[in-house]
Each structure stands twice: as C-alpha cells, then as structure tokens.
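sry for the spam today, last one i promise. struct tokens for design, 211 residues
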C-alpha cells in the first residue's frame, strides 16, 4: 500500500525526568535509568494527505522502565477535541508512526519502543510558548500539566539559556533547553519539578525532519 504523505510544522514543548540537558540527547543513559516524559505540539501548518491539520494541538505522556531504546514502554496519545473525525484519524496515524519511514521521526521510534499504547484521549489542549524566554505551558485538564521556564543560574538567579543542535536528529535540529515541571493524573503517572525540558520548532514528514 502506498504511503500517505503528511507534514506538520510548529512549536513543541517536551519535559522529562532527567537532569537539565538530558543524557539521552547524547546517546547516554537517562539520569536515573528510567524515562518518564510529556510532550505537547501546536501545529501551525500541517496536513495528512488532503486532510488539513492547521491550528490543532496534540500531546502525549510516556514512560519506559529503562532507556527508550531498551523498550517495554507505554504511551498515551492525546488529541485536540476540536479535531474532526478525519483529523483525529490522521493525527493518530502520524502519532503512531504509520506512513513513516522506520526510525525517521520520534513518533515512530517512541511507539515502536512501547509494549502498550493506551486508548487515545480527546480533550482540550492548552498550548503556549515563548522561545526567547523559555516560558511554556501545555495543559490537558485532568490529565497532564507541563510548565517550562528558563534554567536559573544557582548563584545569580539569572536565566541561563542553552541550546542544542543535532545534525542527525529525528525530532528537531535545534532546541532551547529549559527547566520543566510536570504533573499527570492520567494512566501514566508523572511528577517532576525543575527537570529537563526542551522547546523546539518541529518540521516533520513521513521521511523525517524537513530541512
């Protein structure tokens, strides 16, 4: 069967339980040996075939008992309740790694490393981000709340801004690192304060990052 062409472009907020910087970004093991994370994305422009996805939000919570590449994880897809039935189907296909070359997007990689994909939730998803200040917020009422701010210098208490560039990433090419606080009451429990977060502008299609 021919692959349906898709594309999404827009800002992402992600936060996990690792220390600032997240060793996983450097192919090292996570800080405490496990990975627990939440992510939210606003789609400025997007489509799946002829289905337009502009203006919609998606989110997810996920957890692995070890590093992501060691597998046995679980993930909860969350889709904007404003999406039409066609848009919901399209977004879930993208988020589950369908119509995607293996290993080319973090959607496909993460789901392939999960033993359990929870039934998707359709709820309002609040999303706001300021890349310059690193202030960001993703909220799905009753499910997950993610807040980010600049990492603060421990001596001066002034914002400490750091950025990472990945030449061969499957999520982003450049990301601002920040401090994230996450709480989740959904099927995947998350509770972190002042841990790793990154803010990035995504541009992905079924073949990977669009350069």
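last one done:
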């Amino acid at each position: 069967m021919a692959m349906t062409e898709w594309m999404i472009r827009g800002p992402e907020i992600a936060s996990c339980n690792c220390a600032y910087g997240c060793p996983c970004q450097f192919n090292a093991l996570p800080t405490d040996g496990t990975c627990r994370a939440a992510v939210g994305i606003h789609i400025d422009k997007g489509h799946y075939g002829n289905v337009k996805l502009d203006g919609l939000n998606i989110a997810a919570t996920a957890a692995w008992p070890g590093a992501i590449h060691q597998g046995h994880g679980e993930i909860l897809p969350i889709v904007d309740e404003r999406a039409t039935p066609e848009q919901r189907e399209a977004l879930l296909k993208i988020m589950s790694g369908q119509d995607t070359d293996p290993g080319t997007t973090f959607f496909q990689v993460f789901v392939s490393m999960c033993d359990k994909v929870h039934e998707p939730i359709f709820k309002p998803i609040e999303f706001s981000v300021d890349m310059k200040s690193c202030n960001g917020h993703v909220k799905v009422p009753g499910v997950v709340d993610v807040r980010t701010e600049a990492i603060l210098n421990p001596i001066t208490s002034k914002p400490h801004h750091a950025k990472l560039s990945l030449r061969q990433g499957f999520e982003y090419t450049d990301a601002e690192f920040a401090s994230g606080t996450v709480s989740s009451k959904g099927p995947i429990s998350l509770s972190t304060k002042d841990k790793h977060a990154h803010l990035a502008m995504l541009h992905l299609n079924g073949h990977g990052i669009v350069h």
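The chain has one domain: 6-209. ok im logging off now
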